[in-house]
Write a structure and sequence with these properties.
single chain, alpha+beta, 8-stranded antiparallel beta sheet, 17 strands, disordered C terminus
Length: about 325
Amino acid sequence: MDFWVNRVGVPAELIGPVSRAGRVTGEVGMRSGESSYASAYGNEPLFLYVDDRESRLSPAQELHADSLLPSGDAILEMQIGRLRLNPSDQSRFEDLSSSGLYVDVQQKAAPAADSPMALGWSLLGAMMPKKFVKAGGGGAAAQSATQTDLGALQSIALPGGSGRAMFNLFLKGQRRSAFGSFLAAFSEIGVTATNSFLPMLQLPGLSAPALMAIRALVGKLQGLGGNQHWLFQTSPLDIACTAEAASSDTIRFRPGHYLVLPKSQAGLLKEHRDRVKVLDGFLVPKEATAMDVYEAAPTTAPGVSYLTMRVGVKRTRLNGCVAGGASRG
């Protein structure tokens, strides 16, 4: 709960009753993946752009401004691709039996971060390892990679081409946990998983108070009951789709593929930074073809757990209005 209250800014009373010691009732202390502030940096996500022309990975903060839209309003399109786990995280995944992916994007329509005019979009989904292994028929690729296919392109309008975004991914035990109960409820009402991914909440056009309430809900689901392990976690980060909105520490988005991974594993990608590409949602050598992905995906940067996503950026004109996000099939 410390992460959601102290780093994300969720009011403690939205998470649950607060004890005299200032802890949320039901919080059972530090578990696997809940780190101190000194080591939390390693759990933050690193965003790498996959340059198709150069076959090279580049930190998103270092993308040249001239590769972005120059200025104005923009539509950011995002689609989650694949989750590829290293052997250690895959073992935890199978032991804990599920994981949760939470992403939200908020507009920066006003100086105040909690302005009611700044709309947001959020996604919460779950992934189950056994479902993928069964569907994939076993083998190296099935044991080290979990497919997530949302089946929809998420579009978010960003006035001025800027916003704030959170990307959080955690492994979670289903037994005796709020997340497990929530997941079971969605299964019982007939929400079906696409391969291994079960979409639970996809909400566009959220006001700032509504988005904070969703974060509080996700905080409860992630933090209360059961064992857990963070793959990566971050409070809202500044993002930009235009050169005018970009600064030195802004995550810059341009059309193409991105890798998201824990910063603690960045060093393991150094030897794979060049001569690589994303094919069918996996990082593979530049020379790989569609027929090589099954063998190439598990052996390319095998010590790294990463999430791939496809990004699109389009110029638009909002005429002074703040438009909400949308989902398209």
